[in-house]
Amino acid sequence: MTVAEKIELLKQKREQAQLMGGKDRIAKQKKKGKLTARKRIDLLFDKDTFREVDMFVKHRCINFGLEKEEITSDAVIVGHGKVNGRVVFAFSQDFTSRGGSLGEMHAAKICKIMDLAVKAGSPVVGLNDSGGARVEEGVDALRAYGDIFRRNAKASGVIPQISAIMGPCAGGAVYSPAMTDFVFMVKKNSHMFITSPYVIKTVTGEETTFEDLGGAMAHNTKSGNAHFACENDEETIESIRELLDYLPSNNLEEAPDIMMDDDPARTCDELDTIIPEDAKMPYDMKTVIESVLDQGHFFEVHQHYAENAIVGFGRLNNKSVGVIGNQPLVQAGCLDIDASDKISRFVRTCDAFNVPIITFVDVPGYLPGVQQELGGIIRHGAKLLWSYSEASVPKFTVVTRKDYGGAYLAMCAKSLGADMVFAWPTAEIAVMGAKGAVEVISTYRSEINKAEDKEAARAEKIEEYEKAFSVPYLAAERGYIDAVIIPHETRICLIEALDAMASKTEVSPPKKHGNIPL
Question: Could you tell me the residue range of the domain that residue 455 belongs to?
């Protein structure tokens, strides 16, 4: 064979790989509204930067006649390229090739890419679209999943790991995405569950649907297993590209600055009137967040889950920041089990990747109730205390209104390690609300009981307590608040604080790891 013939043979093999599972299966994939594995890769990476690895890998299974079957690229495309100019590694499962099923060599390709990503200090993105383990390969397929899981754990906190569920993801396959930092799902086309509706009906008699059990909105609103729900493949990939811009390539770097063309000296005048006169009236904390951030752009994470809490990314003076807030519009912004988990996870993610944390506080306390207590609110609430206490990135807190009791601590108080705490004049920092305090304080109770008009006396004591204690100044007198600021100054103060603490360092005592209350 001549050199020219050898080159021609290579071209033919490349062309064959491009055909994936064949025209009929590609057409079927498109009919479902799904992009092919290769098209997804093309959209993820900057034009002409993707370099495929292991294109010609083949399975080695000789069971059930599989040795006679050709599975193009063993049903997964892997490689590296650039996303917004930075190196990223990725794999994209090909559902048109034997349902994207995972076997020994399929997993070996994924593991190779994950290993390279860790060595290079670059993010890894997984585009999941698979029918699950390749049954013909038996225990080899199961072991292969284990190889991936172990790498997910080892890479956690070292490089960003992002998963997109773009088709089925069932059984053992669900655990790898669950171990990554962020999970995207496509509405209607993606499903994620341990056991299918058919198995559940057989075993328990319960009837459900694929969408109700494992659809994008089920995992975004109820289980919290997914962070984003997107309309289609294109939106999913574009959102992944945007998310990567808020993160560094690895834990030794910082997220890239991106010019936002927003004046760092800009005031937020609309915030001076956002707090209602009536303390029982809600307002939208997202308005506060968007007012402060560069160009008002807030990239929300876990938008549909535990909506009494808000988490997401934005920029201040072009720098990436993680933003957390209570949402007075939902359950008055109370903390509960799900909100505690949601915030804790986000705090740890930001801390792992050197993203400063800003917390906006308006919290009346923890949500009371038997269900919450028996569901483990103590343990879940402790995660939040743990996460903030452990985080060593710059941490800034802004108290806009209510900040009561244990929730005062949980939302990154000074004693939990906040570097700078700011409070608006409308801040109410106390052990509890005035009404509850009047019922608890014995001198108040005694005076009320002696009064002829007990209701008038109670109202008087509530007002007295509010004036004396439901203010930011007592906390400021003790140094728990660094500054009481006019709301419109919030953006300026945060930018100055971020600049002042840019070189922050904290040294922890040597240990293998803490024992977080999971």
Answer: 434-469
